[in-house]
Amino acid sequence: MRKDLDRLMEERGLDALVVSGSTYGNPSLVYLLKGADVSRGIVVKKRGEEAVFIHSPIERDEAKATGLPLIDMSRYKFMNVLEEKGSHLAASVELYRRIFADLEVQGRVGFYGADDPGRAYVFLRTLDDALPDVEVVGEYERSVLAVARETKDADEVAQIREVARQTCEVMAATVEYLRRHRVRDGVLVDDDGSPLTVGTVKQHVLRLLAERRLEDPEGMIFAIGHDAGVPHSKGRPDDPIRLGQTIVYDLFPRRPGGYFFDVTRTFCLGSAPPEVEKAYQDVADCLDAVIAEAEVGVETRYLQQVACAFLEERGHPSIANDPQTTEGFVHLIGHGLGLSIHEEPSFYDVSNNTQTLQPGHVFTVEPGVYYPDRGYGVRIEDVIWLDEEGKVHNLTDLPKRLVVEMAG
Amino acid sequence: MRKDLDRLMEERGLDALVVSGSTYGNPSLVYLLKGADVSRGIVVKKRGEEAVFIHSPIERDEAKATGLPLIDMSRYKFMNVLEEKGSHLAASVELYRRIFADLEVQGRVGFYGADDPGRAYVFLRTLDDALPDVEVVGEYERSVLAVARETKDADEVAQIREVARQTCEVMAATVEYLRRHRVRDGVLVDDDGSPLTVGTVKQHVLRLLAERRLEDPEGMIFAIGHDAGVPHSKGRPDDPIRLGQTIVYDLFPRRPGGYFFDVTRTFCLGSAPPEVEKAYQDVADCLDAVIAEAEVGVETRYLQQVACAFLEERGHPSIANDPQTTEGFVHLIGHGLGLSIHEEPSFYDVSNNTQTLQPGHVFTVEPGVYYPDRGYGVRIEDVIWLDEEGKVHNLTDLPKRLVVEMAG
To answer: What chain A residue is nearest to B347 in terms of C-alpha separation?
Structure first.
């Protein structure tokens, strides 16, 4: 949580941290700016002190909304520095030299945010050489910001709950929209008699999201038949919606500049083949079995083991026994969820993953089995939150049912 | 353009380039994957050879859509490598060692994409130390990918034109939507008599975008009165829409995983104060004057100089004379537009900016004057494309008029 940042910096011997870049695709910067509607900037936080936001002059009003102490970037006259230094690299080093002098930053300084990797490599090497009082630090995994972000405080959970409610509303409305279509020769048809396609359904979903001020930056999955059997297939836009085929509908929208939610339901319109019914029951039972094991202190990798063992017991292959299998359970049981769609904690079943579930964790549980060559796949995904007392909450208020009867 | 990549690599002595990360917020990766609907991966391109895409096994169908030679990431058994090496950093270095061995990559290798800067710094330093046959190269500005991307080929321009057409449609529909409202005490009101707000207008625009499969990842500007006088103010959601106040409406949506468009119109509903009329005419004339100077071979910084001189001549302050002014013309005259909302060419008026306009450039021209303390600002923005013969095309087919009469 945000309140842990100073402790985490202390543990890693960091005197300050710098988070920079565009806010777009930069959840750590968004996190420190508390979702303020700015396009870019630099946040500098010294250990034990409040973060300072160095913002663009043309975004001064939005910058105020962060509630952070502000520095207007125009103070540094970057164009003059650029003119004087002759290259963007030298000018950027000079800019940081001036900022660090103003804020009295020295010692071990960690750098975070989003940038081109080669550009960051050149810049941070040059900066490290240029500033004798600063040691540039990078963190490869589980950085202070990743660890702070992985446990959510009450305000963050409230924001996630609101996106959850609206996401479940959209999922339910989509199923209703499908049910109300007419059917011809086993295919859903529009009012004008043309087949309803995956592309048209997605358009409808995008409208439902927009009405709720949600966006779909990563691109929803609405995959039918064979494509439902390939976990990350997004679905082919021209595919018609047929009765009796499995549809994997995985929606993971977010509030612009805010938190994601993530939920998957699998269903068949009209009826389902017995083989799919059996697979569906296996996955639904696996979901319950994994959630039953989720409690504070349990190793995250244990949930992956539980899921693999459960589904293998029911006769499905899994990556636990065959890492390259494309049938059965072929992915991780879940992932942390927040300002990124995938964040800590991670559920890799490897011995150096010693993470345990903690109060404040918000993560998906999403068992699935996939049989592309048999034309189907099943995944069911809920989101779990462990509150401060360690109590388990399922944030996904949406029915699970394989067969959806048509309304007509 | 894409076809220039080998020449650009040759000029910079690069034997290979690596572009990696999530596709989200990573236009260089999207560029090499030609917009394929995958969530992440690694592209390796040796000079003179086709790029190879190393993709996730669960995205194998989407990976095929790139048309690139493919390697399924599962070949490298990353989980086993992680188990063996004991850390993500060591395992990632080993992964690249294996990929480079398979593809016979050695020599000077440039790294691009999107990553946490500290993480990239640690990884690339470690990789450079670990691989004796590879020299890790980062480019700080005008990288091979930035330069290739800044000139658009016919296929890219066709995609931008389509987004342009739809964006202008949405802008026009928004103005119609406003015109059709009733007015009470100088404020637009909804059917239920409550004041129409900036937030409600933006909701309507988001629906219009969603209907056209456009998204608004950077967040549109719809700012009225004082906020119109602050260039990047997004507008306050609760502000009511009043007659006679200037509205700056700047819309910059994109096709998901594709190209942006960017257009601004300023208008007043019902009537405009004489001072705003004068400012509007100055900005509209400045737009024409700058576009008249846009031709192949002209230095980009010259367009900035033209704009500053023109508006100063009309009595407005500009950053040319006072870099810290918050009144008058306070920003750059334009920016390149493509898979990023801001990309090359850049229009900084500094002596080390020696860029000239080239065939294939697509860029905004967006003069504006801002007077927040007087409660208004004006910006008008069109997009210009220089075709292969250097002919100037204005891609923005949308009327400009300051005063919009209400329909009622």
So the answer is: A79
